[in-house]
Specification:
The chain contains nine helices and seven strands; from the N terminus they run βαβαβαβααβαβαααβ. It is of the alpha/beta class. The protein has a domain at 13-96 and 137-215 and 242-265: Rossmann fold (3-Layer(aba) Sandwich). It comes from Corynebacterium halotolerans YIM 70093 = DSM 44683.
């Protein structure tokens, strides 16, 4: 249900990264429903064209957010089109750097679940198996990319007289979970960046918050199979995945006038996996 049907973000200019799928895509659709004009950024041109190509209120831009020059070019286009920006949603991110690493992690998750089912002990070892380039790639996308987009957006948010930034962190940045170190390291860095920028940008009426989700029903999660899903759900009091649309509604709230006293906050839609 819409917060205020077709009015919560009326005439707002928004950027959503990772817009071609999952939570980013759900957010674009929710923002359009609420009256925003959205620039949808994603590395996959095919996903953007297939999912958003017919949306009149959406401008799609294919880029790698880890490339600062491409990011700056995209935001210069927004500057030329509107001279301002109201909302930045940094939803782009990766769990693993490539298919090889995904398959490696999946094999460990399957072994972990088999051990749990049989009551055997299994201690995964990640640290010594991570190549430099894998660690670097995840950090470049999840951390550098968030920094690049926020840095490029800041002058446009200031020109608008204020605005909203919401970064995607993860429950893995809040609690200790057995996984390759690059992912929790990157998401913890996003949390630190969020809090720092909330303080710096508050005098300009720019609010900066982060979401730290756990299990969300996206292809990025479910592609690893049911064992991986069940491993995540075993750590949650609420035994279900959240839908991307649920997360999008939270972003509508944070980006609207209803969320104007939230800044520097880390909201965790995690089914109780993180309890404060």
């Amino acid at each position: 249900m819409a917060l205020h049907p077709n009015t919560a973000l009326e005439d707002k200019i928004a950027v959503v990264t990772g817009a071609g799928s999952g939570m980013g895509l759900a957010t674009v659709r929710a923002f359009v429903r609420e009256g925003a004009r959205v620039y949808a950024l994603d590395i996959s041109r095919d996903n953007l064209d297939r999912e958003l190509g017919a949306e009149d209120s959406v401008t799609t831009i294919a880029l790698d957010i880890a490339d600062s020059a491409s990011v700056n070019e995209a935001f210069e286009r927004i500057n030329q089109d509107h001279g301002r920006l109201d909302i930045l949603i940094n939803a782009a991110g990766v769990n693993t750097p490539n298919r090889r690493a995904t398959e490696w992690l999946d094999s460990i998750n399957h072994r972990m679940m088999d051990a749990m089912k049989s009551g055997e002990s299994f201690t995964p070892e990640f640290l010594t198996e991570i190549p430099d380039e894998d660690f670097d790639r995840v950090m470049k996308i999840n951390v550098n990319g968030t920094f690049f987009t926020t840095r490029a957006a800041a002058p446009l948010l200031k020109a608008a007289g204020g605005g909203v930034v919401v970064n995607f962190a993860s429950v893995a940045g809040l609690v200790a979970l057995p996984m390759p170190a690059y992912y929790p390291a990157s998401k913890t860095a996003v949390i630190g960046m969020t809090r720092s920028l909330a303080g710096e940008l508050a005098p300009f009426n720019i609010r900066v918050n982060a979401l730290a989700p756990a299990g969300i029903n996206t292809a990025l999660l479910t592609q690893s199979g049911d064992d991986h899903v069940q491993a995540l759900l075993s750590m949650q009091p609420l035994k279900r995945l959240a839908e991307p649309e649920e997360i999008a509604e939270t972003l509508v709230f944070l980006s609207s006038d209803a969320g104007t006293h939230y800044t520097g906050q880390i909201l965790s839609p995690s089914g109780g996996a993180y309890l404060t």
